[in-house]
Batch of 3 targets.
Target 1
Amino acid sequence: MSGTYLGMPAFPKAAAESTQDESLRANLRHATHTIRDKRAKAVAELDDWQQLRAAGAAIKNRTLRHLDHYLVQVEAAVTAAGGQVHWAADADEANSIVTRLVRATGESEVVKVKSMATQEIGLNRALEAAGIHAYETDLAELIVQLGKDLPSHILVPAIHRNRSEIRDIFRREMEHWGRPAPEDLTDDPRALAEAARLHLREKFLRAKVGISGANFVVAETGTLVVVESEGNGRMCLTLPETLISVVGIEKVVPTWQDLEVFLQTLPRSSTAERMNPYTSTWTGTTDEDGPQTFHLVLLDNGRTDTLADVVGRQALRCIRCSACLNVCPVYERAGGHAYGSAYPGPIGAILTPQLRGVQTELDASLPYASSLCGACYEVCPVAIDIPEVLVHLRERVVEGGRVTIRGTRTTIRPAKGHAAERAAMRAVGWMFDHPTALATAQRLAARTRRLHPKRLPGPGRAWTDTRDIPAVPAESFRDWWKRTRPEGDPK
Ligand code: SF4
């Protein structure tokens, strides 16, 4: 791993390589099956789970419809509470705002609590280029950073590593970043956690600047919320003198009452817990308590464009629980790196091509990184119809058409390499529009059925290498209907 998503191959190529890695597949299978079984039990405890799910979807839909209003409310509330709000249209702007803010403190080190938004914009790389070292403090993120790796899962970024690999990384790398790992470090989980705790404590006590994300922003009070399991986040949010939070604009919820719904659904969907071990909330600044300077960077980076798409916008409801990853048969085999984005799995397959567009080969391949089995939709706590969005985006890839880019309606061309698919769909469309031609084709296919090949030639060969072509019936349905129903009998 190079530590960057730039220049990664399209999903089929990356997945073809990762599925050859038996240890990766074993690690993923073990972890996803354990989490998914626990989640199912935690969810089954609630009689009103489906109502909570519907409530979560409704709250998010309403908020997204009036996002302009709620964002202005957030800005006013954060400012009134002593914070400063910055608006970032894209990754470059967000990175330069954060770099400028850190430089203004005169510091060259920051501690970070896990934030997908900063992963999305490549903040660590941008800070490094400016001579600022960012230290990840979430345990799994620390493992990823020390291993010069990339996250492979939304919630468990080091899911692709087993215990002995983690021990080796700690032994090899910790000394280059701060306090070394103990010489006799074993792969016992408690020993690994203790080594990380001692290593990180040094960083927490020294850092003057903290950088965080947020799971939610409550508009009515301008309060940010982080939910986590380790308490490292809370150290990061309270010890430094300056706190900079980088948050996607879709994280807004209007009221505390709305938040209550997600504080029930998120822990059960993600870690199968009834409630979260640590829920930290902060509102602006408070005299002599916690960071004395607070900056909120509100990140767009393709979210407004996504909002303009009436089918695709439901991806913005996502609360990053990762339940869809843990049930996805494609993710389980390919792993998170194959998706070439901070957002892997089913949610990544619909979010990334909307945030980044489908112009590159990698992004155009993502809507196909699914078997459309629908398991992701079944588990999603905010009822995102992921298969519906996947099909919608496949149409965009194949046909091109009207989309919104940087707020302007524009027409994009079809992605390369889908000519055969496009021609086949047009032919099928024409056939369904002409019932007589369809009936003739069906009869012809029925009469010649014994001559049909078992494998397709040319580009279709790869498809039939792993599937049988469905047999054509001896008689079409409409012919059977005519034969078995007397003339004039509609039943
Ligand atoms: S799409 Fe749904 S299931 Fe997947 S991470 Fe987001 S909220 Fe969770």
Note: The pocket of iron/sulfur cluster is lined by residues 269, 318-324, 347, 379-382, 384 (CB under 6 Å).
Target 2
Amino acid sequence: MADGPKLRDDQHLLGLEPLTEAAHSEEHGLKGRVSRRSFLSGLGAAGLVASASPLAMAAGVEAPAGAQPESGSSAAASTVLVNGKSYDLSGLEPRVTLLDLLRERIYLTGTKKGCDHGQCGACTVHVNGRRVNSCLTLAVMVAGKEVTTIEGLGQPGNLHPMQAAFVEHDGYQCGYCTSGQIMSAVALLKEPIGPTDEDVKHGMAGNICRCGAYPNIVAAVQQVRGHASNTSVS
Ligand code: FES
Ligand code: FES
């Protein structure tokens, strides 16, 4: 544990264990587990019952000792490709969301948890090239598929054009919504929407920005699409 990734306080409270180096290497197995007892005691200590969604609360909980898995409910023995790396989903509790898999098990924290209810778009990632809200997607549903997160889109010094455009147009303020906005904007490039700013606003409607950076976001998206933006402030 000493050499492994460090846990945040809330992860300690939930009893989550980081992937070991061995699990990260080779097959990138997902072995972090939590007992129901430690999970529930953690919830009580943190007073999290009222704030966590049913899906998030269930994520990572092992069945009680001696319990037999229901037919068809045992963890899928399969893999998922995340940003080009294969991860083993064997043994993963079936109710773990894709968002929690990415953030709590693989430590790709660029994807943000906002509402956790499919209403803000902060958790947007690509599954087989199409945008999805990862808080509404079960991890087992992406078995055999390719997932791309903001970390897989571009890197410092080699940004995706949409990332570079967001920087150029100041398309973010606090930045909390930004990875979801960019993932949606990149997917939008392949979707059949019209050329105007209004079309972009409509296509990006599922991504909420509390800071109100919308004009700059639209300008960035329109630049990458090759359309002049009426709302550009740069
Ligand atoms: S966190 Fe998924 S839509 Fe808000
Ligand atoms: S930049 Fe702050 S929420 Fe969008």
Note: Residues 214-225 form the longest helix (12 residues).
Target 3
Amino acid sequence: MSEEKIGVYICHCGTNIAKVVDVEDVAEWAGNQPNVEVSREYKFMCSSLGQDLIEEDIKEKGLTRIVVSSCSPHMHEKTFRTACERGGLNPFLVEMANIREHNSWTTDDKVAATQKAKALTNAAIERVVHHQPLEQLPVEINPNTLVVGGGIAGITAALELANGGRHVYLVEREPSIGGHMAQLDKTFPTLDCSACILTPKMVDVGQHPNITLLTWSEVEKVDGFIGNFTVNIRKKARYVNEEHCTGCGICIEKCPFNVVDDIFEAGMGDRKVIYRPFPQAVPKYPVIDKENCVYFQKGKCKACEKFCPTEPNSIEFDQEDEILTVDVGNIILATGFQLFDSTNIPQYGYGRLQNVFTGIEFERMVNASGPTDGKIVLRDKKTAPKSVAIIHCVGSRDENYHKYCSKICCMYSLKFAHLVHERIPDAEVYNCYIDMRTPGKGYEEFYNRLLEEGTHFIRGKVAEVTNAARKPEEEGKLIVQVEDTLIGRQRRVPVDMVILSPAMEAQPDSKGISQLFKMGCDFDGFFTERHPKLDPVATMTDGILIAGACQGPKDVPDSVAQGAAAAARVAGLINLGTVMMEPVRASIHQEECSGCRICNNMCPYNAIVFHADRKVSEVITALCQGCGTCVAACPSGIISGAHFTNDQLFSQIEGILWDVRPEKELVSA
Ligand code: SF4
Ligand code: SF4
């Protein structure tokens, strides 16, 4: 039997664990296991009183190892490591057993849960005996930061850092920063002009000496770890030289070809083939849409080149994509969201019934610089509607599409109603909602304002939008078929225009992005935060942070708050100068290495070098992230991973099988 003295602490977690697991029984049982010096149960082990128990026992009873059976190590491993350290023990001599997420939260069966708690606790007891004291490694932090995504969250993060004197690379895949907010006319509930509050920030980004703005660019490769990332960025060819171009716009004016603008104008308007997405775009330089450029497709035209007044000419048809490499210490992802495709719900008629519009189409229509100069009109572009129905929750709170609430749709639907009243005072406006959700500063007041403005509110999920009239007054109208649950009857509401308020959803490539940056995303494709309440801007990958709607549906104030929070977190790390890295690393026993080099190419962090003179491989400790790939790959079994040695893992496995092992084995363990 080992000489170690183990302290075991079983947590009730209030009733989270104790309501299913017989905590007293587990603690009493653990006290009888080999090497266990003391075994206790306590209401909240993470509380300061709980931590004091550990600290005092280490000092008074001379404990050399600690086991805490409680919640996930993601939650409190650091807490208990720190408690050990305060008691004078190396922080890596603690092991946690997760008897909450892996046990009490998964079953109501008290007998089985208590048995499993013993198994998990025993696994930790047997494993912790083999733990070794380890030291964390200090790693210097590169003070430069990469922000990916130039919407309001990314802009905020970039400006916060840049204003604090730190250099930022801001990468945006569209030709201009601004994101969805640049498309909006007004923002709820204050009805600020969206462009008026956004464009000064965009200009600040474009002119800031601490920001390298890389629009029309995408991240292709990310290597490294917190403090030391190396990132490859593809800067796509604009076919316009940014150093020579003055942004005069003559090329746009002279380009003879128009195409439908499906991105910024949401298909409601045209743009030229050489274009700036919108007048206030940052940067101001245009970009040639190669797919639709007649010169690129047919070898003729070059009107833009002919009329460009700069010397040398700014049009460069032979420009090619560039790959830039930047070194940064931290990365903030603010890659935003997309809107649900309303054609997925055919019964609402979008794409089939011409006067059914999406929310973003309406946003462009009411925008003074939009395709109708701010006039609310039907698809014929001249008739103002006398009645409008706005349908909330299109694709949200729907078992068939997204179960979640998109959080912003009620409020932007109310904004639409207000804008219709403002522009067409005698129009009847109907808002069809499932539940009215207005949690936010001034939001409920805005709803009350809409009640006073005379909006008709119908509580019920719309079943169908149709043009099949049943009565004379329905002729030529769109009929919204809805069950009004407040009065308990079906209604048919004839209107001239229907506006759908689609769900916010994750970007279509969010899973690919999460793999590129080696972090997680949830079932809906939103990036996974380290903790949904306590750490919403960090991820499980150190040095990679998230902000804005890439983490989940969010309005402008929340996106701004997250952008600033992510920047503050990064600024704090930069100020520290170094970060302590987990000492979980691989090492190769040099004298036993056969030099087969199998491990060399398997390391995803390029952390293994081969010494040709000695014919042995070696792990560069500073680069190793402890993923364990090489440990598993080595055919000679001579690579070991600190904190995950064979002794530790096999003991843990044996420990978890305590109740199926023969009694003599258990005793001899
Ligand atoms: S005409 Fe030349 S200088 Fe003017 S915006 Fe076009 S490319 Fe730039
Ligand atoms: S454990 Fe091995 S494969 Fe993984 S990062 Fe370290 S050296 Fe590379």
Note: The pocket of iron/sulfur cluster (ligand 2) is lined by residues 586, 602-603, 605, 607-608, 619, 624-630, 641 (CB under 6 Å).
